Amino acid sequence: MKTEQIETFLMITETKNLSLASKNLFISQSAVSHRLRALEEHLDCELFIRGRGEKLVTLTQKGEEFVEIAMRWKALWRETKIWALQESKMNLSVASIDSLNTCVFSNLYKELINNNNTDDKKASESSNGITLNVSSHWSKTIYDLIENNDIDIGFTLNSLKYPNAISKPLFKSRGVVISSIFSKYARLVHPHDLDTADEILFSSVSEYHIWHNFWWEKKSE
């Protein structure tokens, strides 16, 4: 079954006239009849009732049932042609802890989206685009997503051992103490001067725990 046969069938359905259908399709009436006959042979059923030498035709029951199918076929073919002309896009799934997504990578994500929108408007000049999917999770959840191949890249605060995940440090930042200007702490504070009773420990970075335990583990004992 060919697209030209479907288009001819729908044109005959619309005009109910073989001669008018041929004019609208810019082909001969014999070509219209040939396409229709080939379609009916392919479907193994009669789609129109037509008398010998008559230009007007009427849909059969099977023909009426086929109208909707033919319209869907034509729409699908149009969608296929549009898809074929579009450039392929790479799907990139990124997961990160919320603070990195919000404070570090937000501008990068915006730049990727803006570049893709520009590329869509200039498809003839653009390279393959990216369909970006970003989500926020806890660090361990991100490793689980990588392990299950649910995401392509993950950004976490710590390095965990997973058989199918490779972790590499991206950057490091200094730990600092922030206090009020009316605080009793001096400009330089020694770790021993900090009271562990006021501590809130939230880091899951192993290096930080080593440093933390070096200064405060014995003190707490």
Write the layout of secondary structure elements.
Layout: H1 3-15, H2 18-25, H3 29-43, E1 48-49, E2 58-59, H4 61-85, E3 89-96, H5 98-103, H6 106-121, E4 129-136, H7 139-147, E5 153-155, H8 206-220
Parallel strand pairs: 3-4, 3-5
Antiparallel strand pairs: 1-2
Question: How would you sum up this structure in a few lines?
Answer:
With 221 residues, the protein is mainly alpha-helical. It folds into three domains: 3-85, Orthogonal Bundle (Arc Repressor Mutant, subunit A), CATH 1.10.10; 89-155, no CATH class; 174-221, no CATH class. It has helices at residues 3-15, 18-25, 29-43, 61-85, 98-103, 106-121, 139-147, 206-220; strands at 48-49, 58-59, 89-96, 129-136, 153-155.
Descriptors for this entry?
221 residues, three-stranded parallel sheet, 10% strand, Arc Repressor Mutant, subunit A, mainly alpha
List segments where confidence is low: pLDDT < 50 over at least 5 consecutive residues. 122-127
Tally of contiguous helical segments: 8
Provide the spatial order of strands within the biggest beta sheet: 4-3-5
- Distance between the first and last residues' Cα: 84 Å
CATH architectural name of the largest domain:
Orthogonal Bundle
Tell me the β content: 5-15%
- CATH level-four homologous superfamily name of the largest domain: Winged helix-like DNA-binding domain superfamily/Winged helix DNA-binding domain
Q: Characterize the biggest β-sheet.
A: 3 strands, parallel
The helix/strand order is HHHEEHEHHEHEH
Outline type: rod-shaped
CATH class call of the largest domain:
Mainly Alpha
* Multimeric state: single chain
CATH topology of the largest domain: Arc Repressor Mutant, subunit A
Count the beta strands. Answer: 5
| Count of distinct structural domains | 3
Helix content: 40-55%
Rg from Cα: 34 Å
**Mean pLDDT across every amino acid position:** 84
